[in-house]
Amino acid sequence: MVPTTTARQPLFHARGLTKRYAMGEVEVVALQGVDLDLFPGELAVILGPSGSGKSTLLNILGGLDAPTSGTVRFADHDLVGASDEALTRYRREHVGFVFQFYNLIPSLTALENVALVTDISTAPMAPREAMELVGLGQRVDHFPAQLSGGEQQRVAIARAIAKRPDVLLCDEPTGALDAETGKVVLDALLHVNATLGTSTVIITHNAVIARLADRVLRMRSGRIVEDVSQQRVTSAAELEW
User: Fold this and answer.
1) Strand ranges inside the chain, DSSP E
2) What is the mean pLDDT of residues 226-239?
């Protein structure tokens, strides 16, 4: 388990994050004063039901959305008030994203999908190396339609890690998968975290997945209501869905 002592400098430091949306005449409050520190190398699971604010929080951490108020820093980068150009550079250089749906280009092979990211990165790993890390070294020449859902998600993970990001942000990465396939994908994320030391944040509504985390943060009604460190399991095979 990665310790989160006060002596360690957080990778993310957020204070007082709020997010409000106007939907016609109705105001939707997605975040209500969220304080959050995330540390280098840890694997954190943000757990909560639909509508709890976890996706909004992840999007703010990833520079895809801006808070209504509050502050958030990534290392020495101030993400609040940053220009579009600065946020694009931040996402390109520091963040890998894994979403519920794979967003692969169907006309490209798995290897070519990964290579798209390495072509615009400053110090990427070889696309084939990224594929090997997620256990798909023998599937590099297959097109997405020739891959299972779990294999497509692992290609998406390979694409995200190929640029050697500091942090991997995962939004319901097993949400479209059955339990056994989901375990394979989660093991790939565990392997990346352990092998590369990539700080990893997984948001999910599935409480079982929380056992994989160094820290579990539970959200409800736009707030973090619990933040617990724990000894995580070493393999998704230990999970009972």
Assistant:
1) 12-23, 26-38, 43-47, 69-74, 77-78, 95-98, 167-171, 199-204, 215-220, 223-229
2) 92
Q: How many domains does the chain have?
A: 1
Angle in degrees, CA 90, 163, 185, rounded to 5: 110
Helices and strands in the chain, H and E counts: 6, 10
Residue 159 falls inside a structural domain: yes
**Mean pLDDT value across the chain:** 92
Q: What is the pLDDT of residues 33-69, one digit of tens each?
A: 999 999 999 999 999 999 999 999 999 999 999 999 9
Domain contains 5 = no
Which pLDDT belongs to residue 121? 81
Q: Is 180 domain-assigned?
A: yes
